[in-house]
């Protein structure tokens, strides 16, 4: 047992009580948490966006991930798979103009992946 376990000792036990007790206890505990300020929200959003950008860059460096993306994009373009399997629209059902923009972007990604693949093949032949 380490210090963390000692600190948690006994905290995992839940006492049985009236059904509203756990809700009341939860609301009481959550009410003690400090809320983010406007500046804190902006900082958090900026960090999340930076993390998402870093993740996309890392995935773009993985050949299998690029191949899987382009394969799925091709299946979406031929309507074999729904667009929602590839893209998460935060506002729910996207407007037709948004769908067209996403599909155009998928086309650009596919062409770019094909061009990169061709350059790799040429480089290997020259090898």
What features would you describe in this structure?
There is one protein chain. The protein is mostly helical and 127 residues long. It contains five helices and no strands.
Major sheet, described briefly?
none
Spans of at least 5 consecutive residues whose pLDDT stays below 50 are: none
- Helix-strand pattern, N to C? HHHHH
How many structural domains are formed by the residues? 1
Helical run tally:
5
Computed over alpha carbons, the radius of gyration is 24 Å
How many beta strands in the DSSP annotation?
Answer: 0
Mean pLDDT: 83
Summarize the amount of helix as a percent range: 55-70%
Features:
0% strand, mainly alpha, 127 residues
Write the layout of secondary structure elements.
Layout: H1 3-8, H2 19-30, H3 38-60, H4 63-77, H5 96-126
Helix pairs in contact: 4-5
Summary?
The chain has helices at 3-8, 19-30, 38-60, 63-77, 96-126.
